[in-house]
Amino acid sequence: MDNFKNLFQKDNFGELSLTILFIIYLIMGYKLPYEVSKLISTPIGKIGVILIAISLFIYCNPILGIISLFVAFDLIRRSDVYTGIDALKKYAPSEEKKSSQFTAFNQFPYTLEQEVVNRMAPIVRTESTLFAASYKPMLENLHDATPLTSTF
């Protein structure tokens, strides 16, 4: 109760007016300009708002400090909603979700083709069968074309 009486003294007029402005901001729900919301939506802007609220909590009246923490939270939330970052966090899939969906789509059953290939006898090649062919390749008529093996 002593903090509340201390807030209404003449020396603390700035703190009192800031407390009243913060309460009006929380109750009325004013929109910030888009440029300000865009600045607050960045990680540096969020850290700055939180640091200001914490410094008000430490160095000013505790009532103003508590209200400033609420205002900081609401300011960050409203700026994220206004710039669309909140919707991206809620509805845009993360890489983990995308990769889990891809792995779910790529689970194929054992197919008939795989079964037939596994049942086939393996192809056995030895050195003697590779070079002992019963035929000789012949080169067809090139019709005045250049052979592929020639150099220019």
Order of helices and strands: HHHHHHHHH
Quote the distance from N terminus to C terminus: 100 Å
- The residue fraction in helices comes out at 55-70%
Count of separate DSSP helical elements: 9
Proportion of strand residues: under 5%
Q: What characterizes the major β-sheet? A: none
Please compute the radius of gyration using only Cα atoms.
38 Å
Number of strands: 0
Low-confidence stretches: none
- Structure class: mainly alpha
| Average pLDDT number | 80
The shape, in one word, is rod-shaped
Could you characterize the architecture of this molecule?
The chain has 152 residues and is an all-alpha fold. The protein is built from nine helices and no strands. It has helices at residues 2-7, 13-28, 34-40, 43-59, 62-83, 85-91, 95-105, 112-119, 127-131. The longest helix is centred in the middle third of the chain and has 22 residues, at 62-83. The radius of gyration is 38 Å and the shape is rod-shaped.
